[in-house]
């Protein structure tokens, strides 16, 4: 029921998308080709579009069929836009709402459409009504199911929920309340399109920029030429570098162009002019669009697959086991853009910046995630589809964050002794605190690793003439840029991180500065077996920040064996390690005089309170940082000031502490050159180069496969 379409690209007349194509929405209103329910969409239509210098879209809606409105045909011939959403309607039930029930619905910068039907409307939605504030219900534009779905979605958007998560949460909630509903939703703000395939057909198409849907190039001097963004605004230099393609997401193809790709049912689509990503709703998946013709990847020889068998999948950790880390851009315990800040029911994400800080990009120190399911690779289209140089592949389940939090807390706080993984430090407040930590005089790792890269980047580049840079944890922009700038023949960058939003932000920002690169972002847990995209070799894998120190010895062995499985002859691993030094220096880095690290450590309790309904009082615990000379690592702990019991309702768990009892929240191992060399050798790698800062506090090492020629 209903058909809809959204477009981002160069400016074109509305009719070029809605009227002129052979199977446009006009034709679909009486003869849809892919519609699975209903045959005529004559109960109204509408279009919303974005104009230059105005983020709020205009709308034209009518209660009758699109073919009967000659005024719209005239309007669509001359009105131009680079971002629009159009729809034709087949009403679920007769109503007196008129054009108010015709999509697109709107609020502020948003446009929304629903293709489908809610089963047993409106009775089935009774259980969801109490979840909305009165003003959301009173503000509904119409009394139809689509208007209610929009009110439900808009309520989440206004609460700051990201666009994709808002649609996913809406679909899941409605399907639970009314199983069997058809919930193909379409949402845009003029720069991003989000859509769901749930019960009916959905397709997308990408094409080179400055080209109309008819395949006719935009002529120089006309509106819509490169340099204007998807809403017709004049683009900045960074916009022009990043926005290299047009994209259409639609209920069905409006022509027979082979570039159309069908979206599997129960899938979320996120599309921008920089690429398209698909994520199964409630399941893991991998999607890697092919390279755009003319990009560095398009004619390069694919990197050969290593013959070394991959490391075996790691079993789930037992209670009390040490926790695993995150790759660091800033320091050994460096916060990644942790799941706690990336997905519901996670803490809020920190504000986005033109280039994310270190904490917004790396996996979590101390992270041990549940074993990830094998990625499900979508069948590729029969004809390759040209897309922009940015591609996103997802391998993490949609509910990974919530499941990991419950698993970690349940296992860690019932173990003897108690532990919590440090990834749960990093909600928005935790991320802010870590940024403060990296600027403290006591905290040296960030500064010392940056010093090495600044001095040795050219030497590192000379040791391996890399064509692809793979960054586990997708480190900070500043340190990454030092390596990128030193690799003149680099063609591809593959950042690996648990946060899709951080990857997209960093990838697009990087393309703005380095448009000749291809960026293949992987949403993945680097501790699981990875499947890297085919990119030109040699490849340089980097794991910065000393994050490997957050892994216990057996976990480090498994991680390094996994890395070895990714390398082919000629490839190399660049590894950052914090070095053993005076105990006073080490403890001070984790127990600063200003008390910032203490607040950072206690923040994990605030996260548990908010996400699991726990009743911890951070003031009931003292921050402890101590050096363990036997294992040569720093431990961060929280020590109960008095006997107490904390309740965690979401887990039906009560946790008792004796006075003075501690919970370990982080381990950070320190290294010596001989130990690093031995651990690399045990994994089948040979240490080839060793660089330190001027005070020998931190080290970067370059390793290759055993038996490979010395770089």
UniProtKB/TrEMBL annotation:
NCBIfam families: egtD_ergothio, ergothioneine biosynthesis protein EgtC
CDD domains per UniProt: YafJ
Superkingdom of this protein's organism: Bacteria
Gene: egtC
Name of the protein: Multifunctional fusion protein
Record's keyword annotation contains S-adenosyl-L-methionine: yes
Enzyme Commission (EC) number: 3.5.1.118, 2.1.1.44
Residues binding L-histidine: 443, 550, 590, 666-668
Assembly: Monomer.
Domain (Histidine-specific methyltransferase SAM-dependent): residue spans on this chain: 406-703
Compositionally skewed regions (Pro residues) per UniProt: 342-360
SUPFAM superfamilies for this protein: N-terminal nucleophile aminohydrolases (Ntn hydrolases), S-adenosyl-L-methionine-dependent methyltransferases
Organism: Streptomyces zagrosensis
Associated pathway: Amino-acid biosynthesis; ergothioneine biosynthesis
Physiological role: Catalyzes the SAM-dependent triple methylation of the alpha-amino group of histidine to form hercynine, a step in the biosynthesis pathway of ergothioneine. Catalyzes the hydrolysis of the gamma-glutamyl amide bond of hercynyl-gamma-L-glutamyl-L-cysteine sulfoxide to produce hercynylcysteine sulfoxide, a step in the biosynthesis pathway of ergothioneine.
Family statement drawn from the similarity comment of this UniProt entry: Belongs to the methyltransferase superfamily. EgtD family.
